[in-house]
Design goal:
The complex is a heterotrimer of chains A (about 250), B (about 80) and C (about 220). Chain B has about 80 residues and is mainly alpha-helical. Chain B contains 3 helices and no strands. Chain B is rod-shaped, with a radius of gyration of 26 Å. The chains are: A mainly alpha (about 250), B mainly alpha (about 80), C mainly alpha (about 220).
């Protein structure tokens, strides 16, 4: 079978491929996660200023990165599905949304738990936190809209439009809040990227990012397979599948 | 943050003198384990929920296929 | 093209005038909701002065969202919206016409009522003027973004509440600059930067929202 660009555009082929890859993703997520945790806790030194509280960074930053990455990927596939009328792309976009929302929630929650002992407050309205909060609202809006529409095609296309409009909004949110902070003197100095990080800390963070990335693939692929079955349930290949397999 | 020279503090689990110290996290145990605990919980729930959804979808598809076989006229 | 714009605007304004009470409900909500805050939070003038611009802006936002589904709802129900889709060469002008009518009938009253809110919150004259100006720049943005939300949720059961969730995050930039302008004036600084940015946002939204709303209408009605 020759591999073309759109070989896996067919839901049936995606279903099979995704199913085959799932164990590898789960294994990678576990291994990278364990490695990251070991480096982060057993090897990385205590932070000079923050003590042990900084170790939240190994979850917080990877989660925040994933939340933004997943949104971009979701908007991309949603737009692809809309423009090219590609069903699998639309289904994949819908599969991404809940995972992205959960990572955003994790980023916000762990950020608050990190901020309380270090900044003295659970929350602060600076650029990063505000835009992350808005991002969560956008994910929820996308999920709410796509779930509220019964027709899958209208749901996918409406979601695509919303995701694209939201993507335009994100840089505006980020810059507007930054300008607002600098126009008003005396705002809190937020914790932006560390200037120079001890290499073990960086390593642990990268390992955890890889773990989260593999985990995302595993969860999103499983959800996408579920969506494929839900939307393609009445097709021939699905019928054949239910005959031949006992489970999933 | 933590501007120490680039070293690999490779003393392994010597970072923590005891399990107690590990859990206590220099006084920040609640925050650190609260974060890790939540993340683990969220991931577990998501993974289980998604697996459940996939199995339900499969079961529904199978049921539809069976019903269609029994009564081809209605589902044509 | 502009003929279509004015025709649609005039038609929608006429329809709004016939249902005057319904058209003025957002204004009523605005005044009542904003007025609840001093009652709930207490009459301490300094506190009120601090929260006044924010309260006014949030209530204006919510009031705008209340009426936004009306832009397309009644036309959708009696089928005339689909006719418009088929007949109109450029759907964007149709959307712009409806947005203009919505802003004139529900946005402008909010701007005109804002001094009342300013007085309720013990704001200075200059702050009140800035508030009104910021709302004048901001309410069109709310109508424009609301049109996108209304078009996306056309005909849905939960459409009205869904529009809130969808549109409110998008309105955050103009909210930030609008309230920032008043805060600047209170601090003795010039609001020019904030207002210019609001103006820029208005232009950007003016260019993009009709396109997005037109696309959304096509998605919802196909």
């Amino acid at each position: 079978m020759t591999l073309r660009f759109n070989t896996f555009a067919a839901p049936s082929r995606f279903y099979g491929l995704a199913g085959g890859l799932l164990p590898w993703f789960w294994a990678s997520a576990l291994l990278f996660g364990l490695a990251g945790l070991y480096v982060g806790f057993a090897m990385a030194p205590t932070d000079f200023q923050q003590g042990e509280a900084y170790r939240i960074i190994f979850i917080h930053v990877p989660a925040a990165w994933m939340s933004m990455l997943i949104y971009m990927v979701m908007a991309f596939w949603a737009a692809w599905g809309w423009m090219l009328n590609a069903r699998m792309a639309s289904m994949y976009a819908r599969a991404l949304a809940p995972t992205g929302a959960l990572f955003t929630f994790i980023a916000l929650w762990t950020g608050a738990l990190w901020g309380k002992p270090t900044w003295g407050t659970w929350w602060v309205w600076d650029a990063r936190l505000t835009s992350e909060f808005i991002l969560l609202l956008m994910y929820l809006g996308y999920i709410a809209l796509t779930e509220a529409i019964d027709d899958p095609r209208r749901a996918a296309n409406a979601g695509a439009l919303l995701a694209l409009v939201g993507a335009v909004n994100i840089p505006i949110i980020y810059f507007s809040v930054r300008w607002w902070n600098t126009l008003h003197q005396g705002s809190t100095i937020s914790m932006t990227a560390a200037p120079k990080m001890v290499s073990t800390m960086l390593t642990a963070m990268l390992l955890m990012t890889l773990s989260f990335w593999a985990y995302s693939f595993a969860v999103v692929f499983t959800r996408a397979r579920a969506i494929v079955l839900e939307q393609e349930g009445e097709t021939e290949w699905v019928r054949a599948l239910t005959h031949s397999r006992e489970q999933a | 943050m933590g501007a120490r020279p680039d070293t690999f503090a490779g003393a392994g689990v010597m970072n923590w003198q005891s399990l107690d110290n590990f859990l206590h996290m220099g006084g920040y145990g609640l925050y650190v384990w609260g974060s890790y605990g939540l993340t683990l919980a969220v991931m577990l729930v998501e993974a289980l929920a998604v697996r459940h959804r996939q199995r339900q979808a499969f079961a529904a598809a199978r049921q539809f296929a069976q019903e269609q076989e029994k009564d081809p006229e209605t589902y044509r | 093209m502009t003929g279509l714009l004015w025709a649609v605007t005039k038609r929608d304004l006429l329809l709004a005038r016939r249902r005057r009470v319904e058209a003025l409900l957002p204004l009523g909500f605005f005044v009542v909701a904003a007025g609840l805050f001093p009652i709930a939070i207490g009459p301490e003038p300094n506190t009120l002065k601090l929260i006044g611009p924010g309260v006014a802006w949030v209530c204006a936002l919510l009031a705008a969202m209340l009426s936004v589904t009306q832009m397309f709802a009644s036309d959708h129900q009696d089928g005339s919206l689909e006719q418009m889709l088929l007949a109109a060469e450029r759907l964007e002008w149709l959307v712009l016409g409806k947005v203009l009518a919505h802003w004139l009938s529900s946005g402008v009253p909010l701007v005109l009522a804002s001094p009342l809110i300013g007085v309720l919150f013990d704001m200075q004259a200059q702050a009140i003027a800035t508030l009104a100006l910021s709302l004048m720049l901001g309410t069109p943005v709310l109508s424009l973004l609301g049109a996108v939300g209304a078009a996306l949720t056309l005909g849905l059961r939960s459409g009205a509440s869904l529009v809130f969730l969808l549109v409110l995050p998008l309105t955050v930039p103009t909210l930030i600059f609008g309230t920032g302008a008043v805060a600047a004036v209170d601090a003795g600084l010039s609001p020019q930067a904030h207002l210019s940015l609001q103006g820029a946002l208005l232009l950007l939204t003016l260019l993009g929202a009709p396109l997005a709303a037109a696309a959304a209408l096509r998605i919802s009605l196909d």
